[in-house]
Amino acid sequence: MTTEESTRETVEYAAEQPPRMPWAQHAPEVYQAMVRLDAAAKQGLDPTLFELVKIRASQLNHCAFCLDMHTKDALAAGESVERIVQLGAWEESRHFYTEKELAAIELTEAVTVLTDGFVPDEVYEKAAKHFGEAELAHLIASITVINAWNRIAVTTRMTPGHYRPGQRG
Does the global pTM surpass 0.85? Predict the structure, then answer.
């Protein structure tokens, strides 16, 4: 045994929380429809932007499973660790993102957190300035779909940590 091994403390992590139910097994048709909807929604969107939107919505919804999945997919798609880390504080870290990305992130927040019951006109107009109508329609669909995934994963307590990039395809 080396000195390093003898002085190294053993770290005990909390036990992994099991999921409440294997949702996809009990609702396979709905799961497959969601996968198809997700694939249709992302058509024409930049893959990095798509993952940033999914990460930001998942942060807001406290969805650990989706955060695990989409940070791994973003990294695999070439996104930087720095931009992923800064996403939680994007308003103070605006210089890490393009104006188009900022418009998408702001729209993601407005659609995800409907505390006022609507998406403000100025948020929508900013997004419309940076995205063509078809691309904006797909962005709105993508934000809506990740919010649905978040709600399923949080409700059924899907377990983060086991996803591999591209696994769900």
Answer: yes
Is residue 52 within 8 A of residue 105, CB to CB? The reply is: yes
Locate 149 and state its tokens. Answer: 């995934």
pLDDT 10s digits, 117-146 = 899 999 999 999 999 999 999 999 999 999
The Cα 135–Cα 162 span in angstroms is: 32
Q: What would the pLDDT profile of 57-98 be if each residue is shown by its tens digit?
A: 999 999 999 999 999 999 999 999 999 999 999 999 999 999
Q: Is residue 166 classed exposed, middle or buried when 0-12, 13-18 and 19+ CB atoms within 10 A define those classes?
A: exposed
How many Å apart are CA 19 and CA 24, to the nearest integer? 12
Residue 151's closest CA among 117, 112, 122, 120?
A: 112
Alpha helix (H) ranges present in the chain? 3-7, 23-26, 28-41, 47-60, 64-76, 81-86, 99-112, 121-130, 133-156
How many other CB atoms are found less than 10 A from the CB of residue 73? 22
**52 touches 101 (CB < 8 A):** yes
